UniProtKB/TrEMBL annotation:
GO biological process per UniProt: adenylate cyclase-activating G protein-coupled receptor signaling pathway; hormone-mediated signaling pathway
InterPro entries, sorted: Leu-rich_rpt (IPR001611), Leu-rich_rpt_typical-subtyp (IPR003591), LRR_dom_sf (IPR032675)
GO cellular component: plasma membrane
Compartment(s) of residence: Cell membrane
Record keywords: Cell membrane, G-protein coupled receptor, Leucine-rich repeat, Membrane, Receptor, Repeat, Transducer
GO molecular function, a single term: G protein-coupled peptide receptor activity
Top-rank lineage group of the source organism: Eukaryota
A Pfam match: LRR_8
Membrane topology of the entry: Multi-pass membrane protein
Gene3D superfamilies for the chain: Ribonuclease Inhibitor
Species this protein is from: Anopheles atroparvus
Protein name, as recorded: Leucine rich immune protein (Coil-less)
Amino acid sequence: MIPQLSALQTLSLAKNQIDAIEVGALDLPALEHLYLSENQLTVIRNDTFGNLTNLVGLFLNSNKITHFELDAFGGIGKLATLNLQGNKFDRIDRRVLENLSNLLHIHFTEFHHCKAALHVRVCEPKGDGISSNRHLLDNPVLRA
């Protein structure tokens, strides 16, 4: 790590055509906000953000993410805001998010993804009280 960056609290790498992040590449212990919006990320691997123990805001919106490994957000237990809008994943396993106990706000493109984040106080987009049959059938609680 470059010593001058050890106290860095906010980092924007938005709009940089980044298509992958190596595990351990982000060794910034004081970082609180990371903007990776509008890049080319497709997969978030286990512990990608594990060295960012003080991270409270992570913005991954408008990438091409199709998959999250189960421990993709391991090590960032202080995370309060996560933006995943504008990505290409159809489903997200609730186990990916379950260890983010301090998560207060999460942003998806589609409301049905909120079922993976039932512990989060604010999940967007807000539901309209009506959902398609496909989304209702995806939820085991609502199946007949």
